[in-house]
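Bench log. Compound arrived from synthesis this morning; before running ITC I wanted a structural hypothesis for how zinc ion sits in the protein. Inputs:
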Amino acid sequence: MATSLNIQGTVIPYEERKNSRSKRLSLRIGRDKVRVTAPCKATKREIREFVEANQDWILAHWVKIQEELLNIPKRQYQDGEALSVLGQSLELKIMKTNQKTMRLRYLKEEKKIEIRLPEGIALENQNEATREILGQWLKRKAREVFQTKLDQVSAQMGVSYKAFRLKEQKTRWGSCSSKGNINLNWRVILAPEQVIDYLIIHELAHLKHMNHSPSFWDVVGQYCSDYDVCRHWLKVNGDRLTL
Ligand SMILES: [Zn+2]
């Protein structure tokens, strides 16, 4: 059932779901709606009272998420702009040269990414070209960083995966198949390092438990004590992790 809530004048899209596996009422504040999941036996009245009892909390979280969404700065790909990679802020240095090809150099010590564009490039193509070359570089970087981490962490956890592939997906950060193939979304390279570590631990933990059961989270927790902070970070900031 899809409808909306009105909490102190703020209209919030609302959805109710019954789930035979849920034992109690639960609430989830998403980016586009608030969802209540109820056990099958829950009455309309119980659900209404539950929502009413939690309305201050719902409103506060809804407003916070909406504000965060509005604050996503649009990238301009201009000289001097900052890009966060592995949690480190790097400055884009964009310059024109008389060479015909584009080039990107990562200046590690100076924390800069230098991008050289051909002089003759039309203004309207400049942003797209910069985005393109940055994307290629970030994917290479992601492949290298993820691979290294997968090897280190899998050894620590005593698991072995079969293959690793870099993916580009809108909403999925990673996955692990029953055959032991791990996919990771390159966009996570734009997240802080602890979030990347969490994701890698999460996918490798699936080699021990192919589900999200309490035993699965126990394994994750052994190697990543602040996993809930990282999960939350991804939920809230995932949309920013893009070029
Ligand atoms: Zn999972």
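What the model suggests: Residues 202, 206, 212 surround zinc ion (CB under 6 Å). The longest strand covers residues 88-97.
ITC booked for Thursday regardless.
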